[in-house]
Amino acid sequence: MLKPCDTPPPCGSSTPGIDTSVIALWLGHEQIATTGIHLHADLVIKQQALDRTRPPDIPAGRHQPDDALLTWLTNL
Length: 76
Prior knowledge:
The chain is mostly helical. It contains 4 helices and no strands. The model is unreliable at 1-13 (pLDDT under 50).
């Protein structure tokens, strides 16, 4: 059963305002304790690691959806 974290905000995460239980759901974890393993790394370090795994023809950085996609998602 998911429950709010017991640690001070931001729940041990380096992302303020995102509860550990939400991150656990994003990652598909059954137990919140499993998620704690992922919360200790800085998000910049995580992004740098992901950038190193990308194919050479894909630019580094985060995907920025176009306005049409954002509008469609907003209207859902």
